[in-house]
Design brief:
The complex is a heterodimer of chains A (154) and B (579). Chain A is of the alpha+beta class. Helices cover 55% and strands 14% of the residues of chain A. Chain A has one domain. The longest helix of chain A is centred in the first third of the chain and has 64 residues. Chain B is of the alpha+beta class. Chain B has seven helices and 25 strands. In chain B, the strands form five sheets. Chain B has a six-stranded antiparallel beta sheet with strand order 8-7-11-5-16-15, with no helix packed on it. In chain B, strands 6, 9, 10, 12, 13 and 14 form a six-stranded antiparallel beta sheet that branches. Chain B has a five-stranded antiparallel beta sheet with strand order 4-17-24-19-22, with no helix packed on it. The chains are: A alpha+beta (154), B alpha+beta (579). At the A-B interface, helix 1 and strand 3 of A face helix 1, helix 3 and strand 19 of B.
Chain lengths: 154, 579
C-alpha cells in the first residue's frame, strides 16, 4: 500500500516542482521587466525634470547676470551646480547649453527675452532600453528650454 | 479530525489567481507611478512658465514705477501692458493664458514693494489614463512676484541752458492729464475730468541753488558781489505759443517762491514769492522773457554767506500752480498747450535788462528779452551787437542757444552748441559759483517746435554703478515723440572715441502718445563693455517733429537688482535663493 502510494506521489511532486520553476521564471521575468522598467522610466522622467529645472534656473541666472563679463559661461556653470546630485553629469550639461534670443530678429538685451536651452542625449541614461517597452535605444536627443525676461546685472 | 491540505490542482488555481492579482497590482502601480511622475514633470514645466510670465510682468511694472509716480496710478495705467507681457512670456514657454490669469495688486506689498500673481495651465495627455476613462489632466502652475520701483536719476540740474533748443522745464507732463503718461503733473484731475491725480504734489517742484561760501570773492568785480539774481523764464506760463495762442483768458495762476532752506521745512524762511496768471495784465509782455519778479529776487546774501559754513548756503525756488498745462480749460481738449518755465541764478547782469513790466499780481518785474540787442552799449564793448543771450553766454559761460529765436512767436533754427557744461563733480550745473540742481520732479518737457528742429536734451550726470565689477545700465524714455521726430542718439561727456569725439549710442524714437521703448533706448557701459565708465553727463540728440512736445525721464541701475523676484510658489519647484 505504501509503495503504491509512493509510486503515485513521486511523479506528481516532480511535475509540480517543474511547473513552479516555469511559473517562477515567467513571473520573475515579468516582475523584472516591471522593476527595471519602473527604474528606467524613473530615471528618464527625473532627468527630464532636472533638465527643465536646470533651464529655468539658468534662464533666471542669466536674466540677473546679463552683461557680466562672462555671463554665458557663468550661467552654464550655475546650471551645472543646479544639476549636481541628479542623474545628469556636468560635462553633458555644459556641452548642451545654448543661450539666445527666442525671436527670429531678437537680440539679447535688457527687457528682451532670453531662451536658455539644453540638449541632452537621453541614451546616456538609458540602461534597460533593450527590453523595457517604450524606451528608445540609441541616440535620443531631448531638448528643454525656458524663456524669461532679461533684467540685467547689478 | 484530520486536516487535509488542498489538492495540488486547487493550489495551482490559487497561485494563478494570486499571480494575476499581483501582476495587476504591479501594473497598476507602475502605470500610476509613471503617470504621476509625468504629470509632476509637466507641473515643473508649468511652474517654469508661470515664473517667467510673472517675472516679465513684474519687471515691466517695475520699469513703469519711476520716482515720483503714484504706484496705484501706474498699476492701473499699465495693467494691460503688464498682463500682455505675462501672456507673451507664457506663450514663449508653451502656455496659452488669458490676461485675466494675471492678477495685479495681488497681496499687499510693503516698503514700496508690490505684488502680482500669474497662473498658467495646460491640458496634458495621460499615458494610461484611457484605461480609466480619463485621457488627460489639467496641470497648472502659479507664481507670485514682488517688484519694486526703478531707481530714477534726477534731472540734475535743470539749469538755464541745460536743456537746449526748443525745450522748457515743465511742471506738467505732456498729455491731457496725469493718466496719459504724465509722471509729474501739477494738475489734480484727469483729462477734462475731475479724478484726482494721486501723484499731484501740492508743494510743487523744488529747485535747489547752492551758493558757495566764496561766492562774493568769485564775483568781486560785480557792483554788488553778494547779490544773487534769481530769474524765471516766461512765468506766465506756456511754451512757444504762450499767451499768444492760448484759447482762454485768464488761465491758471503760477506761484514762484524763493526760500532759504528747503521750502516749508523746519527752519526754512520764505524770502519772497510772486504769482503770475496767464492772461492777466502784464502777462503778454513777459512771454518768452527772462523775468526778475521784483527787487527781492535780486537777493543780497551777505549776511547768509558770512555766517555760512564751507558748504555755503542753499536757496530754493518752489514752483506750483493751481491748474495744469492742459486742463485749465476743463474739457477743452486743447491738445498741446504746455506749461513750461526755466530758472537761473547768478550775479547781477544789468547789461541784459531790457525793460520792466507791471504784473497784475505784484509789482514791477524787470525783464530780459533773450533775443534783444542792447543798442546802448558803447562801440568798444565786447558785447556790442550781441543778443542778450549771447552776452550771457560770454559772461557766464554757457548758452542754451536761443540764437534762433525769431521775435516772440517761437523758437526756430538750429540752436547754438554749448561752450561748456560748467558742471561740478556731481554733475550739477555751476555758473559763477552757483550750483543748481533739481530736487523733485525728475522729468522735463520739450515744448512745441514749429518745424523740424535739431534738439539736444541734457539729462545731466549719471553716477556709475556702485558695484564696479558690474556695468552701468542707463535707460532713457521720451514721451510722445511723434510726427517727424527722428534719428536719436545719446552721448556721454566721458565716453569718447579715438578722435576725442563723443561716442554715439543710437536709440529709437518713440511714437505718438506713448513712451519710447526703453528696450531700444538702454545703454550699457562700464564693466564688461568697450566703454569704461566712472560717471558722466548724458545728452540726447535728435530731430524733433513739428508737433514735438516731449517729456523725458531716465533711470539707471544702482546695484539693487533684481527689481522683480519670486516670493513663493504653490507648486513643487523650489527657488534656489537668488530669485
Amino acid at each position: 500500500m505504501s509503495r503504491k502510494i509512493h509510486l503515485i506521489r513521486r511523479p506528481r511532486a516532480a511535475l509540480t516542482q517543474g511547473a513552479v520553476l516555469v511559473e517562477f521564471v515567467f513571473v520573475a521575468i515579468f516582475f523584472l521587466i516591471m522593476l527595471f522598467g519602473l527604474i528606467q522610466y524613473g530615471i528618464i522622467i527625473s532627468s527630464l525634470n532636472t533638465l527643465q529645472q536646470v533651464t529655468r534656473e539658468g534662464a533666471r541666472y542669466y536674466s540677473v547676470h546679463f552683461n557680466d563679463n562672462n555671463d554665458t559661461a557663468e550661467t552654464t556653470a550655475y546650471m551645472q551646480t543646479v544639476a549636481r546630485g541628479s542623474f545628469l553629469n556636468n560635462s553633458d550639461i555644459s556641452n548642451g547649453v545654448t543661450i539666445g534670443a527666442p525671436l527670429a530678429n531678437g537680440s539679447l538685451q535688457i527687457n528682451n527675452p532670453v531662451q536658455v536651452t539644453i540638449s541632452y542625449d537621453m541614451s546616456k541614461r538609458t540602461f534597460f532600453g533593450g527590453f523595457v517597452p517604450g524606451v528608445k535605444t540609441g541616440t535620443n536627443i531631448v531638448t528643454r528650454s525656458t524663456v524669461t525676461v532679461i533684467e540685467g546685472s547689478n | 479530525m484530520v486536516l487535509r491540505s488542498p489538492s495540488a490542482s486547487k493550489k495551482r488555481g490559487v497561485m494563478l489567481i494570486l499571480t494575476v492579482a499581483a501582476m495587476a497590482v504591479t501594473i497598476f502601480v507602475a502605470m500610476y507611478g509613471i503617470g504621476f511622475s509625468y504629470l509632476n514633470y509637466r507641473r515643473v514645466q508649468a511652474q517654469s512658465a508661470a515664473d517667467s510670465a510673472a517675472l516679465a510682468a513684474g519687471w515691466y511694472m517695475s520699469n513703469q514705477m519711476v520716482a515720483g509716480t503714484d504706484p496705484a496710478t501706474v498699476i492701473s495705467t499699465y495693467a494691460t501692458q503688464a498682463q500682455n507681457q505675462a501672456v507673451a512670456y507664457a506663450a514663449y514657454n508653451g502656455y496659452t493664458i488669458k490676461p485675466s490669469d494675471v492678477t495685479l495688486n495681488y497681496g499687499s506689498g510693503s516698503n514700496s514693494v508690490y505684488q502680482l500673481h500669474v497662473q498658467v495651465s495646460r491640458t496634458e495627455p495621460l499615458f494610461f489614463g484611457g484605461l480609466f476613462g480619463r485621457s488627460n489632466e489639467l496641470v497648472a502652475g502659479e507664481a507670485t512676484v514682488n517688484y519694486k520701483p526703478t531707481s530714477n536719476i534726477m534731472w540734475d540740474p535743470t539749469w538755464y541752458g541745460r536743456v537746449n533748443g526748443p525745450l522748457l522745464l515743465s511742471a506738467d507732463g505732456p498729455n491731457e492729464g496725469y493718466d496719459g503718461g504724465d509722471l509729474i503733473d501739477s494738475l489734480a484731475t484727469t483729462a477734462g475730468g475731475s479724478t484726482p491725480n494721486a501723484a499731484y504734489n501740492k508743494l510743487g517742484e523744488v529747485y535747489q541753488f547752492n551758493i558757495p561760501a566764496n561766492y562774493a570773492a568769485m564775483n568781486s568785480k560785480q557792483k554788488n558781489p553778494y547779490n544773487i539774481l534769481f530769474e524765471i523764464y516766461d512765468p506766465g506760463i506756456f511754451g512757444k505759443n504762450d499767451e499768444l495762442n492760448h484759447p482762454a483768458s485768464p488761465g491758471e495762476t503760477w506761484d514762484f517762491s524763493l526760500w532759504k532752506g528747503y521750502p516749508r521745512s523746519g527752519g526754512s524762511t520764505e524770502i519772497t514769492h510772486m504769482d503770475y496768471q496767464y492772461g492777466a495784465a502784464g502777462d503778454a509782455a513777459i512771454a518768452n522773457m527772462w523775468v526778475t519778479p521784483n527787487a527781492s529776487w535780486d537777493y543780497n546774501a551777505q549776511s547768509d554767506l558770512q555766517s555760512a559754513g564751507p558748504g555755503g548756503v542753499n536757496y530754493y525756488i518752489e514752483v506750483s500752480s493751481d491748474s495744469s498745462s492742459e486742463n485749465d480749460v476743463p474739457g477743452s481738449g486743447a491738445g498741446y498747450f504746455k506749461d513750461g518755465y526755466q530758472l537761473r541764478a547768478g550775479p547781477e547782469h544789468p547789461e541784459l535788462v531790457s525793460g520792466s513790466v507791471t504784473n497784475a499780481q505784484g509789482g514791477t518785474s524787470t525783464i530780459v528779452d533773450p533775443a534783444a540787442i542792447d543798442t546802448s552799449l558803447p562801440a568798444n564793448s565786447p558785447y556790442k551787437g550781441m543778443s542778450n543771450d549771447n552776452v550771457w553766454e560770454n559772461e557766464y559761460g554757457y548758452s542754451p542757444g536761443f540764437s534762433g529765436i525769431a521775435g516772440s512767436n517761437g523758437i526756430s533754427g538750429i540752436p547754438a552748441q554749448p561752450k561748456s557744461l560748467n558742471l561740478d563733480s556731481n554733475g550739477h550745473a555751476i555758473q559763477n559759483g552757483v550750483t543748481m540742481q533739481m530736487v523733485e520732479a525728475p522729468s522735463v518737457t520739450c515744448v512745441g517746435a514749429t518745424s523740424e528742429n535739431y534738439t539736444t536734451v541734457y539729462f545731466g550726470y549719471a553716477p556709475p554703478n556702485p558695484n564696479t565689477s558690474k556695468p552701468t545700465v542707463i535707460t532713457f524714455r521720451g514721451w510722445d515723440m511723434d510726427t517727424g521726430a527722428q534719428s536719436i542718439y545719446y552721448t556721454c561727456s566721458t565716453i569718447l572715441d579715438s578722435n576725442g569725439n563723443p561716442v554715439h549710442f543710437p536709440g529709437i524714437i518713440g511714437s505718438n502718445a506713448t513712451w519710447s521703448n526703453n528696450v531700444n533706448n538702454t545703454i550699457t557701459v562700464g564693466a564688461g563693455t568697450p566703454y569704461p565708465y566712472t560717471g558722466g553727463v548724458w545728452t540726447a540728440w535728435y530731430v524733433t517733429g513739428p508737433q514735438d512736445n516731449t517729456t523725458w525721464e531716465w533711470t539707471g541701475n544702482t546695484g539693487a537688482r533684481p527689481r522683480a523676484w519670486l516670493i513663493s510658489t504653490n507648486a513643487t519647484t523650489t527657488s534656489t535663493g537668488i530669485w
